[in-house]
Amino acid sequence: MGKRRLKKAEAKTTPEQTRSRWTLWVWLGAAAVVVAGVIGIVFFRGSDGSTSGTTATVRVGSPAPGFTLQLLTGETLNLASLKGKVVLVNFWASSCPHCQQEAPVMVRMYERYRDKGLAVVSINVIWDKADDAKRFVETYHLPYPVGLDASGAIGGAYGVDATPATFFIDKGGVVRARQDGQGSEAEIAKRIEALLAG
């Protein structure tokens, strides 16, 4: 009895099936991108709005991270040298509209409270340009120390990913408040006065 050869039916793919499969892969790829984006947001920015991942998160009530800042004058400033004073550490970018609006307020705060024990440290963020930062300082006549966070290390230590961001540090070097975005002059003055009285 001769051997029978069984032929497998060749599967034929219609153009409609090809399009359906291509559409499925496109949707799966898009879904993967969305999931990766959500994971990235959760990883780098916590549900409470704090920054995590590659940057630290400075908690209110914790010691302010120390740093040495290269000033535009060519000198350096160490945060530890300001212990015993109330310190505002203000992060800004020259192109930031809220930073531009806030700069005159910071100048007024400094001039009003410096003789009572206030120090302001102005830090230009890593994503800004040095020449633009210098023009900003000249435009707003900033009278307090201004430096460039050229490496991003200081902003990273404070968890800064947007500007303006201001940290209110008490006389003992502890962060007592964090202000993300532009604050009102009255609120800033209230916080400063509370720390000076402490």
What would you note in describing this structure?
The protein has 198 residues and is an alpha/beta fold. The chain has 2 domains: 13-44; 68-197, Glutaredoxin, CATH 3.40.30. 39% of the residues lie in helices and 17% in strands. The chain has 5 helices and 7 strands, in the order αβββαβαβαββα. The chain has helices spanning 15-44, 97-113, 130-140, 153-158, 185-197, and strands spanning 68-70, 76-78, 86-92, 118-124, 146-148, 165-169, 175-180. The strands form 2 sheets. It has a 5-stranded mixed sheet, covered by helices on one side. It has a two-stranded antiparallel sheet with strand order 1-2. Helix 2 packs parallel to helix 5 (185-197). The longest helix has 30 residues, at 15-44.
